[in-house]
Automatic annotation (TrEMBL):
SUPFAM superfamilies: D-aminoacid aminotransferase-like PLP-dependent enzymes (SSF56752). Keywords: Amino-acid biosynthesis, Aminotransferase, Branched-chain amino acid biosynthesis, Pyridoxal phosphate, Transferase. This is Branched-chain-amino-acid aminotransferase. One of its GO terms (biological process) is isoleucine biosynthetic process.
Length: 325
């Protein structure tokens, strides 16, 4: 689907994947004017095909577009494009637990113009691919690397937008995490390098002994995760005390050592919920609880997966059914 300043959205088509033609002067290649989303289509246990909260993805895509000076694709068009693709590819949606059809909508600047100003031409595209669990160990606890060298986003920047540039800026920190035997990087805030923000591609939660669930607040520098929002709602229903509150890396260490903090987990569309077992930085490491998945993490994971697969009642109306014609 294309967008130009004179015609608006036009020339949509769905078909087999094939390479694009792109001008070497296209603005995206020089100034990174690009945004994307990550979402999944699931097979429910009764054979239906559903999306999980696609309106939330469409709205976040719109907010990212505004921040990156791009045109906003109306929610109905965004969902219609996804639906058409899923209908065409529905035979590729895996049925096993943890597997799904991953969907990657993205919008990028195609105008051939080297001046630094917003492009006047864009292409919107959605890729689909069957996926299994995000981490090879399934729901096995991950080890995370706390980056002291690099930050992901600063106040006034693009941290709350899902734009390619954020990920480009985080790649070196992610590579360091891998070099230190870790699965993911944890970013701290840009000002004090003290407050925990989020992981390279996931939000983060902490569970205390007395049943409190904490997550960093939406300060404008972290992504407003749809999984994060769903967990906040499910946890409150379960009777947990839910707090969106700043939490420092120093306090995390102290609370893990004293046993006040019993669990920590990361969450996002790709991995759903994954326990954090070990936290490592340049000075050393510590273990959360006994290093295994805790009961709160397990319960929230199963509730979320069961809602997505139509096993548990969808009381929040999060599932968007796709009629396969
Ligand atoms: N933070 C970052 C940086 C991410 O890339 C993602 C994945 N989209 C998330 C958080 C989790 O967001 P969601 O639950 O909407 O997938």
């Amino acid at each position: 689907l294309k967008w130009t300043s004179d015609k608006g959205w036009h020339d949509g088509l769905v078909g087999p994947r094939r390479p694009f033609q792109i001008d070497p002067a296209a603005a995206v290649l020089h100034y990174g004017q690009e945004i994307f989303e990550g979402m999944k289509a699931y097979q429910t246990q009764n054979g239906g095909v559903v999306l999980f909260r696609p309106e939330a993805n469409a709205k976040r895509f719109g907010r990212s577009a505004e921040r990156l000076a791009m045109p906003v694709l109306p929610t109905e068009l965004f969902i219609e494009a996804i639906e058409e693709l899923v209908r065409l590819d529905h035979e590729w949606i895996p049925t096993s637990e943890g597997a799904s059809l991953y969907l990657r909508p993205f919008l990028f600047a195609t105008e051939a113009f080297l001046g630094v100003r917003p492009s006047r031409e864009f292409t919107f595209c959605v890729l689909a691919s069957p996926v299994g669990p995000y981490f090879s160990g399934g729901q096995k606890p991950i080890t995370v690397w706390v980056s002291k060298d690099y930050i992901r986003a600063a106040s006034g920047g693009t941290g709350a937008a899902k734009c390619g540039g954020n990920y480009a800026a985080g790649l070196l920190a992610q590579a360091q995490a891998y070099d230190h035997g870790c699965d993911q990087v944890v970013f701290l805030d840009a000002v004090e390098r003290r407050w925990i923000e989020e992981l390279g591609g996931m939000n983060v939660f902490f569970v205390t002994k007395d049943g409190k669930l904490m997550t960093p607040p939406l300060s404008g520098t972290i992504l407003e995760g749809i999984t994060r929002d769903s967990i906040l709602k499910l946890a409150a229903e379960q009777g947990l005390t839910v707090q969106e509150t700043p939490y420092s890396y120093e306090q995390w260490k102290l609370d893990a050592a004293s046993g006040v903090l019993t669990e920590a987990f990361a969450c996002g569309t790709a991995a759903v919920i994954v326990p954090i077992g070990v936290v490592r930085d340049a000075a050393g490491e510590f273990t959360i609880g006994n290093g295994a998945a805790g009961p709160v993490t397990e319960t929230l994971y199963h509730r979320l997966v069961n809602i997505q697969r139509g096993v548990e009642a969808d009381t929040h109306e999060w599932l968007h059914k796709i009629e396969i014609l």
